[in-house]
């Protein structure tokens, strides 16, 4: 990755560019969690450009060239950052053939015809898919040994930094708004659930309280109820005793 500090206003010790090398297999960095975290952290702080370095000598094989183009395409669409296809070792092989393959579909087909295989048939089909990708792809041939093409490379980086400001920054702002809105919706949803849970707890407490009031009456109320029950029993007993006394008086009168 190439980090440009030109448009950030944070130049220190006259440093215009910071090169971040990510050695190793592409899959390990690009498709791993740590690689995504590092690239996103840099891209949110500085204008960032992806420099995909290719071995020009190996890319003389059209199948290998197509494989590199697929990698470059996947990285660009995953990171959404401006990408430059940097063709290294131009001191050994000129990269003109690769540029011709990207600009002329028929030329690439002829190169594939010279390497008949299953992979070449697949590359022929993929070349049609990547035709639109080539239109917006920046390319640059350099030599790490002689320094040839490095000036042109940094010119492409400057252009890509402008693209970063025009395309990536609005995308980043839109992404932040989406995440913020999603966060607010999630908080609102959690708040609604909390209110519902509290309502259920209150209803349950009210129900339990009503049960306690009917089963566990206060002592004064229980005594009052007991006294009412006792008074009813007393009235019954009083009525029964009165009837017995009246019958006994009638019996004495009859036998006098």
Question: What is the secondary structure topology, with strand pairs?
Answer:
Elements: E1 2-4, E2 17-19, H1 26-30, H2 33-43, E3 48-55, H3 62-79, E4 83-88, H4 96-103, H5 105-113, H6 118-129, H7 131-135, E5 138-141, H8 150-215, H9 219-254
Parallel strand pairs: 3-4, 4-5
Antiparallel strand pairs: 1-2, 1-3
Structural description of this entry:
Helices cover 66% and strands 9% of the residues. With 256 residues, it is α/β, with parallel strands linked by helices. Helix 4 crosses helix 5. The radius of gyration is 44 Å and the shape is elongated.
**Sheet with most strands:** 5 strands, mixed
**Number of distinct beta strands:** 5
Helix content: 55-70%
Helix/sheet category: alpha/beta
Strand order of the largest sheet: 2-1-3-4-5
What is the 3D shape?
elongated
Roughly what is the average pLDDT, rounded to an integer? 76
- The string of secondary-structure elements, in order, is EEHHEHEHHHHEHH
Radius of gyration: 44 Å
Strand portion: 5-15%
* Low-confidence runs of at least 5 consecutive residues: 212-231
Task: Put the structure in a nutshell.
The chain is an alpha/beta fold. It has nine helices and five strands.
